[in-house]
Amino acid sequence: MELASIYSVQMDYIQSLVRYQREGFVYGFYQGKTFYSVFQPIVDRAGKVLAFEGLVRIWDDQGNSVNPGDYFSSMPPGDAANVVATLLCGKLHSINLAHTVYRHSKLFINVSPSVFTLLANHRQSIEHLMHRLRCLRLVSDQIVYEITEFEETDLEGILQGKAYLEEYGIVTALDDYGARYSTRKRALKIRAPYLKIDRSYVGDENFVREAVAVARSIGAKTIAEGIETREQFEMCRESGVDYFQGYWIAKPMTSQRLQRYQPLAL
C-alpha cells in the first residue's frame, strides 16, 4: 500500500477499520487484532486536568492481550502497517474523547516518525485530518502529537511534519525525555512545546531539574510521566515540573469510565 493512499479524499482507509459501540464510542479492527482506547489524565500542580493521553489496548483473535510497545516495535518504522495502526489509534482516541464530558480537553496522541514523514510529504493528509476534527467538533489546538523514539535519519521528516502541523495549530511533545534517543541535543533541535520526562527518571531530582532547565531554555512545558507516589510528585513539583501523569494521579481508564472521572485536588 502506498502511504499516500492511507489518507485520501477518495477513500478514508483508516475510517473503514473503525467499529462502533453504544453511546458513540468506537474500537478498531486491523490485521486480526482489536484496538481499544484508554485515557490517562495529565494534570497541573493543583490537580486540574490539562489533557488526556490516548493509550491503546490490543487483543489478538484468540482474546489474548498484546503489549502495545512490543506490537509497534516489532514493525519496521516505515512499514505501512505501522502507519495504519498509528493513525487508527489516533482516530479512535479522537472519536472516543469527543463523546465524553472532557471533549474540550487537550488530547495527547503517540505518533511514529513515519506519520510525520507522511504529513510532510502529503499535505492533503493534514487537510483530511482537519476535516475529521471538524466533524467531531474538536479544534486543532486540542491535539498534541507525542514524538516517539526515532533514529537520526528520521529527524528531517519529523521537523518538516511538525512545521506543517503547527501551521494548522497542532503542536508536539517530545516523549520519554532521557530514554535512549530522547536526549538534550534532540530536545534542542526539535523544540517541542512539551517535554515529557521519562518515568525512569521521576525519582532523580538532579535529572528532573536539568530537564526543567532544558525545557525552559526552549520555552517548553514539562510533564513528569509515571508518577506513582506522593514523594515523586512533590519532588517533581518542587523541582519546577509543570504537569504530571501516572498511576498515583489516575490509572488509564476506558471511555465509559472517563465519563465518570472526577479529578482530585492535589
Overall strand count: 12
The structural domain count equals: 1
| Parts with pLDDT < 50 across at least 5 consecutive residues | none
Order of helices and strands: HEEEEEHHEHHEHEHEHEHEEH
Q: What is the annotated CATH architecture?
A: Alpha-Beta Barrel
Instruction: Give the overall form.
Output: globular
* Tally of individual helices: 10
Span between termini: 48 Å
Q: Identify the CATH homologous superfamily.
A: EAL domain
**How confident overall, as mean pLDDT?**
90
CATH class: Alpha Beta
Strand order across the largest sheet: 3-4-6-7-8-9-10-11
Structural category: alpha/beta
Query: According to CATH, what is the topology?
Result: TIM Barrel
Helical content class = 25-40%
Main β-sheet, in a few words?
A: 8 strands, mixed, barrel
What's the Cα radius of gyration?
A: 18 Å
Structural write-up:
It is a single chain. The protein is α/β, with parallel strands linked by helices. 36% of the residues lie in helices and 24% in strands. It has ten helices and twelve strands. Helix 4 (113-121) packs across helix 6. It is globular, with a radius of gyration of 18 Å. The mean pLDDT is 90. Pfam families: EAL (PF00563). GO terms for molecular function: cyclic-guanylate-specific phosphodiesterase activity. Residues 19-266 form the EAL domain.
